């Protein structure tokens, strides 16, 4: 495996078969790589969710979530380049457009009328929530890993943004859960 020199100090380790492995000891760079992969996963998931739901409001919100994950990815890519160049992180200035304060932040109230068949939508809420919770944990960890205030502020801002996504998904899930269980006959009554 050939790796290009990035200007970041690396260590070379010998393997038992005589090969070498390049190791980058910078946890922020490694964390940014993981975060970029996770954001790409979020983009793909929310794009698929938007395509599969029949709820017009749900489609619009999932498209918005995919767009916001795309913005996260672009910011992460720029921060990666800043670190490689020895530059400061740029501030994250965008705010989420997903409104968790709404009674039904993801789906329209019409979804309740077909809740018995809304298996995909309920699955999308559950999976999306897990993706967001994992991102929150990842970004909190990255914020705690650094002594650089610009890097810490960047990741703390991402935490708040992902918390907004998680709150909207959780609120919608909770609003529909009991009715969904009952209409799909999951409840034992």
What does this structure look like?
Strands 1-2 form a two-stranded antiparallel sheet. 26% of the residues are buried. It is elongated, with a radius of gyration of 20 Å. With 189 residues, the chain is mostly helical. The longest helix is centred in the last third of the chain and has 35 residues, at 149-183. Residues 1-13 have low confidence and may be disordered. The chain contains 4 helices and 2 strands; from the N terminus they run E-E-H-H-H-H.
Q: Judging from the principal axes of the Cα atoms, what is the shape?
A: elongated
Mean pLDDT: 82
User: Which radius of gyration do the C-alpha atoms yield?
Assistant: 20 Å
Secondary structure: helix percent: 55-70%
Which secondary-structure class do the elements indicate? Answer: mainly alpha
Biggest sheet overview: 2 strands, antiparallel
Query: How many E strands?
Result: 2
Order of strands, widest sheet: 1-2
The H/E string reads EEHHHH
Distance between termini? 59 Å
Strand content: under 5%
Which regions have little confidence, pLDDT < 50, spanning 5+ residues?
Answer: 1-13
Number of helices, counting only DSSP H or I runs of 4 residues or more:
4
Q: Layout of SSEs?
A:
Elements: E1 11-14, E2 20-23, H1 27-52, H2 56-84, H3 119-145, H4 149-183
Antiparallel strand pairs: 1-2
Task: Give a quick set of tags describing it.
189 residues; 4 helices; elongated; mainly alpha
Provide a short characterization of the protein structure.
With 189 residues, the chain is mainly alpha-helical. It has four helices and two strands; from the N terminus they run E-E-H-H-H-H. 62% of the residues lie in helices and 4% in strands.
């Amino acid at each position: 495996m050939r790796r290009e020199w990035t200007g970041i100090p690396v260590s070379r380790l010998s393997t038992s078969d005589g090969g070498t492995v390049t190791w980058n000891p910078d946890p922020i760079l490694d964390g940014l790589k993981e975060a970029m992969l996770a954001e790409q996963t979020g983009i793909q998931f929310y794009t698929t969710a938007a395509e599969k739901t029949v709820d017009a409001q749900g489609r619009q919100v999932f498209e918005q979530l995919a767009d916001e994950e795309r913005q996260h990815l672009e910011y992460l890519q720029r921060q990666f380049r800043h670190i490689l160049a020895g530059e400061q992180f740029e501030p994250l200035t965008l705010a989420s457009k997903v409104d968790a304060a709404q009674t039904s932040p993801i789906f329209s109230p019409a979804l309740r009328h077909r809740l018995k068949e809304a298996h995909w939508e309920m699955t999308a809420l559950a999976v999306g929530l897990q993706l967001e919770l994992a991102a929150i944990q990842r970004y909190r960890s990255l914020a705690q890993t650094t002594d650089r205030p610009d890097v810490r502020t960047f990741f703390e801002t991402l935490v708040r943004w992902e918390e907004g996504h998680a709150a909207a998904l959780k609120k919608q899930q909770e609003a529909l859960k009991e009715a969904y269980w009952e209409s799909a006959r999951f409840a034992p009554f």
